[in-house]
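About this split. The held-out portion is used to measure sequence recovery: a designer receives only the structure tokens and must propose an amino acid at every position. Recovery is the fraction of positions where the proposal matches the reference. Here is one held-out target exactly as it appears in the evaluation file.
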């Protein structure tokens, strides 16, 4: 156990009671509480449809299937991301085209994205990494020029926005994660946001074994082969109670991020990533760039501070480097730099300014 952990899930007495209420009801599978959670996300993001699923990964897979993406199609993804972003492309039988990132924001390089488009390109999955929103002016221009679908891997970015529009409302389909590292968590799980009724209906059917309502005497029919990607009432209860506090939690995270930025201003050997111009960051993760990152991370952990890497550079892993359904475009110099230099610092509800000062003091002592 670390004296200062990377994150702490918010489990209040009200969260516990909400879970107990579900247990007492006996209705544990997907049901009315899951519906309430979906409605809370939809209302917050300003979208017409939200579907709760087993994970962000299965949500991304559902999105690609709803867009009829499969063998022979190409989907462009950034190299610097968690493997799920690219894996789902291969899971549906399509080719993942991996491109580099912007060195300042760590988001997908929009020029590299556009250069990688071919006649087989059907979609792109940009990532609003760590809660930093995407530049939708640039993305929409690319989308219009080439007729692409945009599926946003918004795993980390519930609560972020671009030019006043909430993340989740700007892509054809966006998918959030509710893993325990996310500040709105369900233990495991994800939610899909879209304004497209056709896509929403298809995904709703597929995640329920291909079931659809019917006017027949039987009441239901199975119109396609599907599977079970449902989120239970039990898990949804955790996230539903937390959604009632989302504005408070975001305000606190942004204040904590401002504190870190002030404390680290001018610090030698520390560089801060840039926030998308016109964007409002949700600060799921607070990252810095530092030399000798692994040495620094190990030393901080020895001091009881749970620092962590940012995420992964996919082209460095055999699952992607040696894969007939993956095409790597470019040398990935920026992605590799981020992979080797980005360091995630602790950030959680209730973290005091004194603890933030201890984190920064330790970081400066180690890097000086």
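Reference sequence for scoring:
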């Amino acid at each position: 156990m670390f004296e200062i952990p990377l994150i702490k899930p918010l489990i209040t007495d009200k969260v516990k009671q909400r879970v107990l209420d579900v247990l007492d009801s006996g209705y544990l599978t997907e049901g009315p509480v899951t519906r309430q959670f979906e409605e809370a996300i939809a209302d917050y993001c300003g979208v017409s449809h939200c579907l709760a699923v087993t994970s962000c990964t299965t949500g991304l897979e559902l999105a690609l299937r709803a867009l009829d993406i499969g063998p022979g199609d190409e989907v462009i993804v950034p190299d610097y991301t968690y493997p799920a972003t690219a894996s789902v492309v291969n899971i549906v039988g399509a080719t993942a085209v991996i491109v580099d990132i912007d060195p300042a924001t760590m988001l997908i390089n929009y020029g590299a994205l556009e250069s990688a488009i071919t006649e087989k390109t059907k979609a792109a999955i940009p990532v609003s990494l760590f809660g930093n929103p995407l530049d939708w002016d640039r993305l929409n221009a690319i989308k219009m020029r080439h007729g692409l679908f945009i599926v946003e891997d918004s795993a980390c970015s519930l609560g972020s926005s671009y030019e006043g529009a909430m993340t989740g409302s700007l892509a054809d389909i966006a998918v959030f994660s509710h893993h325990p590292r996310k500040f709105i968590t369900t233990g495991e799980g994800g939610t899909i946001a879209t304004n497209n009724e056709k896509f929403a209906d298809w995904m709703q059917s597929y995640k329920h074994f291909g079931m659809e309502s019917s006017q027949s005497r039987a009441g239901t029919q199975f119109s396609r082969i599907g599977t079970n990607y449902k989120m239970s009432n039990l898990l949804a209860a955790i996230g539903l109670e937390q959604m009632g506090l989302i504005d408070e939690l975001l305000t606190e995270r942004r204040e904590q991020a401002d504190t870190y930025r002030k404390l680290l201003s001018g610090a030698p050997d520390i560089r801060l990533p840039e926030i998308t111009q016109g964007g409002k960051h949700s600060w799921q993760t607070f990252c810095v760039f530092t030399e000798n990152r692994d040495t620094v991370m190990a030393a901080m952990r020895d001091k009881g501070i749970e620092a962590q890497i940012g995420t992964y550079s996919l082209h460095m892993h055999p699952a992607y480097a040696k894969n007939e359904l993956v095409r790597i475009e470019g040398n990935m110099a920026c992605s590799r730099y981020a992979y080797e230099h980005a360091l995630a610092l602790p950030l959680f509800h209730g973290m005091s300014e004194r603890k933030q000062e201890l984190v920064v003091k330790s970081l400066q002592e180690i890097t000086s």
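Annotator remark: The chain is about 40% helix and 15% strand.
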